[in-house]
Amino acid sequence: MKINGVKGMNDILPAQVGRWQEIERVARDVFALHGYREVRTPVVEPYALYARGVGEATDIVNKEMYVFEDKGEEKLALRPEGTAGTVRAFIEHGAYVEGPQKWFYVGPMFRRERPQKGRYRQFHQLGVEAFGIAEPAIDVEQIAMVAELFRRLSVTASLQVNSVGDAACRPAYLEELRAWLRAHGGALCSDCRERTERNPLRVLDCKVPTCQPVLAEAPGLLERLCDGCRTHFDAVRQGLEDLGVPYRVNPRLVRGLDYYVRTAYEFTSDALGSQSAVVGGGRYDGLVETLGGPPTPGIGFGMGEERLALILEAAGRPVAENRPEVFLISADDVGRREVLRRAAALRRAGIACDLDARGGKLARQFKQAERVGARFAIVLGAAEAASGQAKLKDMATREETPVVLADLAGRLRPAAGA
Ligand code: HAM
Predict the structure, then answer these.
(1) Does residue 275 contact residue 117 with C-beta atoms inside 8 Å?
(2) Would you call 101 exposed, middle or buried from its count of C-beta atoms within 10 A (0-12, 13-18, 19+)?
(3) Residues within 6 Å of ligand 1 by CB
(4) Domains plus CATH for the chain?
(5) Phi, psi (rounded to 5 degrees) for 171
(6) Which ligand 1 atom sits nearest the alpha carbon of residue 120?
(7) Deepest in the core among 181, 213, 224, 352, taking most CB within 10 A?
(8) Does the pTM exceed 0.70?
(9) What pLDDT does 388 receive?
(10) Are 325 and 375 in contact (CB under 8 A)?
(11) CB 106 within 8 A of CB 79
């Protein structure tokens, strides 16, 4: 019986993986240039971490999380995002005693959403979290870091920023908003009406066309920010302008996780269709405390790797593949031993090479050399072993050049990183 993979969870096959490796290589370089260090946390965490950290009223926790009882002992969840687990690790290992920390992670996340282009049930995030810095300078540095990463990948994306307020100004605003939404409920969709009670800020994010003109009139938080939030937001904007990072203020930008305060931002791309956000992030100054640590400000973002890969694909960017420099072809029984011996020596010298371990007809071996994209091929047999000479064939031009086998490694290009 054939068993297929789980809906919304994808294989990344060898022909595509080069794109992923490129994204991760560039991201790791850029993160390191900004002083971020990698952390690796488990894919499974206690359910309570997300209920308390991300918020029980959010769609992510409420509807989309994979939750299970571990043999009746503990309620666990597959991580739907990286921030809560990273904060848990930060607290559990007492990392806060060392002062500000900049961490990054790469890995799979799980949300039981309806799969569509750019939206999957297992997806991958490149994420960063900076702890212990309340000043807007870190917001600016982090957003500019995304811009630099995109510059290096030649990706165009637009940045939207907003301030979602804090404990000083948001509660009063939420009450005002809720009252307004109740009064206008008749003109709103059923989702909006339900969210009015549960999570009124999320109503602003509704994509239903008939709700748009109504919501455009809703009271805005930006005009009601407290002095602290206002000053912070102004400084973030000034910093982005100083660094030449283009942005648009979107007063309706709200995020799907409850921990955000002050700065919230997203990078979106037209190449993605309806799931247009490629990066989402913001500040979460109360989260470390909520999860049992000392009061510690924090800010971070998550970048969807699938969505980044889709953008690169839409731009027609080729996938870098590792190709062998040379393919060793055996002409006879002596050659069969010779190719293995020579291949081992070449690989020790850092030269990527391959051979057809089945041996057999020359034509089939040449075909294999072509299929794997080898730059050169070389035929080895009793004659070549005796003379110490062979012909190096350029697979693109078909040109053959004599080569002394003892010099072979010197004639070839070492693999990157060899
Ligand atoms: P998020 O906005 O939920 O934020 O996710 C961040 C990014 O992950 C999205 O912009 C998108 O590119 C990608 N993503 C999310 N869901 C899916 C999905 N179902 N399929 C494919 N890609 C998806 C967070 O997760 C926060 N933890 C970000 C953060 C870190 N905030 C502070 N620190």
Answers:
(1) yes
(2) buried
(3) 81-83, 111, 113, 118-120, 123, 125, 127, 129, 256-257, 277-282, 284, 300-302, 304, 306-307
(4) 14-169+221-314 (3.30.930.10), 326-416 (3.40.50.800)
(5) -55, -45
(6) 20
(7) 181
(8) yes
(9) 97
(10) yes
(11) no
